[in-house]
Amino acid sequence: IDVGIAEEHAITYAAGLSAAGFKPIVPIYSTFMQRAYDHISHDALLQELPLIYCMDRDGLVGADGPTHHGVFDLSFMSSLPNMIVSAPKDGNELRNLLATAIQLNKCFSIRYPKDSSRNFDLYGQPQLIEIGKWEILHRGIHDAIIAVGSMVGLIEDQKDTIYKELGYLPTIINARFIKPLDRELLLELCLTHEHIITIEEGALAGGFGSAVSTFLHDNGLD
Prior knowledge:
Blueprint: H1 7-19, E1 25-29, H2 30-33, H3 37-45, E2 52-56, H4 73-78, E3 84-86, H5 91-104, E4 108-111, E5 135-138, E6 143-147, H6 150-157, H7 159-166, E7 171-174, E8 177-179, H8 183-192, E9 195-199, H9 208-218
Parallel strand pairs: 1-2, 2-4, 3-4, 6-7, 6-9
Antiparallel strand pairs: 3-8, 5-7
């Protein structure tokens, strides 16, 4: 259902469909989802109406210009109560997150970039993902790099360079859930590594790194 360039109406309309028993999936550019922040909060979350928010063009989008940079969704979605916030590393994981969101019956946001999906098996079957569970891509030493969404591919592409230039390969984590955090794995990483490095494509204030920093503070970790 195309409601035109009316993001606020799109969310409230989807909330009405949800109240009627449908499972609405609402795709809106990341940067324009912020126009509907009030409607997400009051018309969906406050009414406990589950919606699936699919935010494409997350991160920096080059020639599309500053109005289209999707750098705030991690912060404002994470600030909303009872919102699950996620970012897939590739097209296959996007399909898995979408399948998970459909069967959950909760408010669920998924952000993904404008660019290539990196990996996508057209005939693959969706796999459900445990909420809040991160993926360990490589077990390394000394440091742990915890990457979000499109940044996972950036790190994976540089593994050999990191090893050759620094002489070691840190642990690499796909933090596909920004909220909730994988608290069990994060605590393990903090206790077994010298440094934790977070990397995300978004505003620092209220983002993934902020959430990790808050976790460290709350648990007396430095």
